[in-house]
């Protein structure tokens, strides 16, 4: 019996459709297996990584805590032995000096101590232009000088140099500003011994604003 052309064509197409369907299903299964299997294997890896990260964090925290604890204990054992900035059992003394007014321009500033009973300099109750250090120790000297016009001649039209001399040698120097007529705050720290001489000079000679807020010399004794 001879089949019609349409039936023969349908008979040929059916195996092709089955083959294509089988291939499609197999590809889909492979895709699903390929996506699900790594996810199953990734779960223990994620847990392991989280546990390992936690362990490392704890170890790092313990290390940092021990490091800073040992550092603080070592610093506390040396406090008061070397650095004056970390001295906890040391005394401090401060001496404030005020410039004395002079009628004529002068190259040397005369000072009067505001604490006449101070033991930092000799003859603290007198007005002197040379200060004699009385105690050994570490010192900080703060100096500010402001000029003023005196008489008919003004000296405020140019800059002047202000020098702090220690035993005749220049130890600290600054220049007055032509607008403010002041040196600003000059400061320096040094280990001084008893008998050291401190003197402040002006070049060229000038008159000084003797207001304590404008011109002052502060001697700070830390310890020895």
From TrEMBL:
The keyword Transmembrane applies. The keyword Transmembrane applies. Keywords: Membrane, Transmembrane, Transmembrane helix. InterPro entries: Tumour_necrosis_fac-like_dom. The chain crosses the membrane at residues 45-68. This is TNF family profile domain-containing protein. It comes from Ilyodon furcidens (goldbreast splitfin).
């Amino acid at each position: 019996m001879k089949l019609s052309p349409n039936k023969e064509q349908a008979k040929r197409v059916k195996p092709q459709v089955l083959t294509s369907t089988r291939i499609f299903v197999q590809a889909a299964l492979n895709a699903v297996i390929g996506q699900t299997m790594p996810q199953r294997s990734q779960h223990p890896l994620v847990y392991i990584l989280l546990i390992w990260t936690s362990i490392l964090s704890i170890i790092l925290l313990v290390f940092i805590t021990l490091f800073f604890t040992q550092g603080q204990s070592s610093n506390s054992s040396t406090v008061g032995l070397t650095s004056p900035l970390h001295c906890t059992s040391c005394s401090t003394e401060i001496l404030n000096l005020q410039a004395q007014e002079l009628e004529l321009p002068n190259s040397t500033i005369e000072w009067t101590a505001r604490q006449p009973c101070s033991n930092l300099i000799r003859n603290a109750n007198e007005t002197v232009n040379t200060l004699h250090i009385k105690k050994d120790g570490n010192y900080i000297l703060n100096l500010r000088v402001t000029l003023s016009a005196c008489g008919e001649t003004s000296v405020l039209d140019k800059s002047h140099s202000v020098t702090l001399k220690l035993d005749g040698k220049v130890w600290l120097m600054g220049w007055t500003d032509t607008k403010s007529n002041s040196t600003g705050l000059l400061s320096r720290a040094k280990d001084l011994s008893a008998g050291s001489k401190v003197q402040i000079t002006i070049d060229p000679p000038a008159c000084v604003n003797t207001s304590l807020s404008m011109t002052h010399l502060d001697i700070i004794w830390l310890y020895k």
